[in-house]
Amino acid sequence: MVTRDKVRRARIVTGAAVLLLSLAAALWHPGDRSPFWQGIEGRLLDARFLWRGPVAPPRQVVILAFDDAAMARQADFPPSRTALADVLSAARDAGAGVVALDFLLVSPRPDDAALAAALSTSNAVLAVAEAPRDAPAPDIDGGGFDLVVAPEPGLPLPALGPTRALRGTAPLGHVVLPHDAEGAARRLGAARALGTADGVTWYEALAIAAVARATGAGDLQLHASRIGGQLSIGKTAVPLDMRGAIPMNFYGPAGTIPTLSAGDLPETGLEGAIVFIGATATGFGDRHATPFDAAFPGVELHATLAANLLEGRFLRRDAVAWAWDVFLALVVAGAGFVAGGSDRPWMGALAGVSVVAATAAVLQAAFSAGWWLDGTTALLSLLLGLGAGAGLRLLEHRRRAANLARYQSPLFVERLANAAEPRLAEDARPAVVLFVDVESFTAHSERLGPEGTAEFLRLFHGLVEQAVEPLGGIIAHFAGDGAMIVFGLPEPAPDDAARALRFIESLYAAVRDSADWPGLGLRVGGHAGPVKTGIVGGSRHRQLTVSGDVVNTASRLQDFAKTRGAAVALSDALVGSSAETRSRAERAGLRSAGRHGLRGRMARLEIWTGPAPAG
């Protein structure tokens, strides 16, 4: 009961520690921390996209691309402002509701007036980006937000806006595309603080500005803080992640958003659509890695965000998602701890795989519902639970093995514990068997009483163990004041007999040196020859046995020592097994007593007897 209580207490303490550590990991939110963890989280998110597969985008968003075919018709690279004006006008005439130009029109050109004229008659949005730190702050229009509640941006970079001839012809939206730690584009900043001649100005993303123009929303608000924020476009509220960005819900690889070549424009078919004009031709270099594509056009990133805003297809990675991360971390850590701590390895492996599969399914289901839960948090918590459960199980098995070793020789523990059906040698093997008992034990036990007798037996058994283990013998069993010692198991060795004689000397020395020994003598009988080892018992209770004539003869030799008043009686098969053992026996005072018959044996045996070995 005490041991069970200790095991239960250890499980509770370890389980509580697992939950606390998983809670700490969830609050730390590794997927938004160091580049290493961000990279892992990015790959886990990509896996969720690939598992879901491509989906159909809304038809209200179209891309007019200056692709290779369109650039083949152009005399200039990049396309001239006149070419941009022609495409803009064609989109307007085809019924486009809003046109967003994903071009940085920074340097003045002779044909700026043509583009300015086209912009003045179109519902369009132009691009603004970040300039180098030492660039002068430009005199350009402010952003489209009516209200911005955000932390102090510090010292933002200067704005890189349209040339002077194009300023004021259309509202501006930023086209800064951030990348995650491993270089992939998975989110787009809802707003960017840039330096202008009027001070710090917040610009919404190009896609947000286009959607706001298309829906006629006049109230744009950005609420940002250290735990995310919210973007309001009219009546639509868009949750922001911890970086103040909007995670993009990709529809598929490049070209999934309807894309038309700027060199072959339709005359109709764009009624009410949000049209993005950008470059995809070879040489522009505006390509980015995404879950579906390693070379995704930058203009399609902006178009993807606009499509998400129109559909309400958002990936939430805000404070609410964070709270779900904490809850999921605690659940999977607990489930992993239970699975990893299963007593049966096959059951633990099956439960562990089941928990991993269930965790992946929950993450995927949440993703399909629009929640970007932190996969690294769930993964860390799951590994923590599985590892702690398996480690605790291993410690418990080691404790059980240690307990088993108290009842069985350590030489056999691993073999017995690891095999489902342990088997020992099929044939008889040579071994040395010794029997030891205490002289006058019955009378001494009568004087001691039950408790004193138990204490004395613990002392005697401990002295036997102290003498036998360093020499590689095994204690086959204890029987009251008797002990059966075997040398040569589980595998025989050429010096088994010599070690048996050394054990006799060590045992007598241990008795003499013990301050608690009551002065009783010992008797030892021993024989050498083939023995058979095996496992006997039923289906639930088994024990190791050593059998054969050698065992019976060793026991009879112990009785023979008593009748001859000797402390030690050994067979010539043991003493004469080598010149070393014969010499050692003679030095210990053993002498041949001739050939004698033993009770129960027909054949006579040459026996060596002698006193207790001297110190």
Could you describe the 3D structure shown?
By secondary structure, the protein is of the alpha/beta class. The chain contains 16 helices and 25 strands. The strands form six sheets. Strands 18, 19, 20, 21, 22, 23, 24 and 25 form an eight-stranded mixed β-sheet that branches. Strands 1, 2, 3, 5, 6, 14 and 15 form a seven-stranded mixed β-sheet that branches. Strands 4-10-11-12 form a four-stranded mixed β-sheet, covered by helices on one side. 41% of the residues are buried. The mean pLDDT is 88.
What's the arrangement of secondary structure elements?
Elements: H1 2-28, H2 35-52, E1 61-66, H3 68-72, H4 81-93, E2 98-101, H5 112-120, E3 124-130, E4 147-149, E5 159-160, E6 172-174, E7 187-189, E8 191-196, E9 199-204, H6 206-215, E10 220-225, E11 228-233, E12 236-240, E13 245-247, E14 259-261, E15 274-279, E16 287-288, E17 296-297, H7 298-311, H8 319-340, H9 345-368, H10 375-407, H11 410-418, E18 429-438, H12 441-468, E19 474-479, E20 482-487, H13 496-513, E21 522-537, E22 542-547, H14 549-563, E23 568-571, H15 572-575, H16 579-587, E24 591-596, E25 605-610
Parallel strand pairs: 1-14, 1-15, 2-3, 2-15, 3-6, 4-10, 21-23
Antiparallel strand pairs: 3-5, 7-13, 8-9, 10-11, 11-12, 16-17, 18-20, 18-21, 19-20, 21-22, 23-25, 24-25
Helix pairs in contact: 1-8, 1-10, 4-5, 6-7, 8-9, 8-10, 9-10, 10-11, 12-13
What form results from the Cα inertia axes? Answer: rod-shaped
Share of residues in helices: 40-55%
Radius of gyration: 44 Å
Sheet with most strands = 8 strands, mixed
User: How far from one another are the termini?
Assistant: 45 Å
Low-confidence blocks of residues = none
The number of distinct helices, counting runs of at least 4 residues, comes to: 16
Strand content: 15-25%
Give the integer mean of the pLDDT values.
88
* Topology, number of strands: 25
Q: Provide the structure class.
A: alpha/beta
